[in-house]
Amino acid sequence: MEREGVLVIGSANMDMVVYTERFPAPGETVLGKQFAMFPGGKGANQAVCCARLGSKTMFTGKMGNDLFRERLCRSMENHGVNLENLLIDPAEPTGVALITVDGDGQNQIVVASGSNMKLSAADIESKKALFSAVKIVLAQLESPLETVMASARLAKGNGCIFILNPAPASPLPHELLQLADFLTPNEIELEIISGMPAADPETAAKAARSLLNRGVKHVIVTLGGKGALLVDQSMEKTFPARKVAVVDSTAAGDAFNGALAHSLANGAELMEAIEFANAVGSFSVTRKGAQSAMPSLEEITAFIQSNPME
Question: Catalytic residues, which ones?
Fold first, then answer.
């Protein structure tokens, strides 16, 4: 059987978003301008991004037996994600994220993981046949670490490319770093994982190189409006972002990771894949919400043509 597409393993949350002019200080109440609920969760967002761009995309995660699951599943299936391998937890609720977005489009997020943290290594082992059918396995850290480890081992054991988006960040075991073909932290996540400062491209490159010494094949640091930084054994290269008006940055990292997985699954060279992922990340911040911010291939093609690099 010919390998194709992406297997995304991870989280699904219902995002409850309040838009306000500024974030409250500790102990302060501020009035919001608008409230909305959006289907989200890093794993689900990344899966929707892959599927919207045209990749055959399977998602494995765990949701609760509740109304949020129904709404999340409807959104993901409408965008083309295969949910045949979704698991249901009878006791824990579907995860939720409480998100505040300020007037500059920046966000603060608190996640109540619920059923996401019940996705076990045994659950992944029960789906091991999926790993022989796909080119790319993409995971995040909104599932238990042992579950991510099981996913990484199965990915490498079946010859898949394994992309780890280490968010939310935590120190990572040496074995997991060795199994990662691509590690895609933002600057804060890079600092936590490496134990080194990463406040600018120079220090970020140094911190990323320390992770190469611990076994990662490629580190791609997402730098928000400054683009992305690739560090591997052969180079350090910065990929600038397109200049756009930021509306909501909630799922920009998920858009980048989903687009990177899509590009690599479809045979793109690494430089091309990062440039494309950068463009998709830039596009996503121009829309509200998470999955609703992911473009189709036609939309991103038009966006790239009308927003050339400066």
Answer: 254
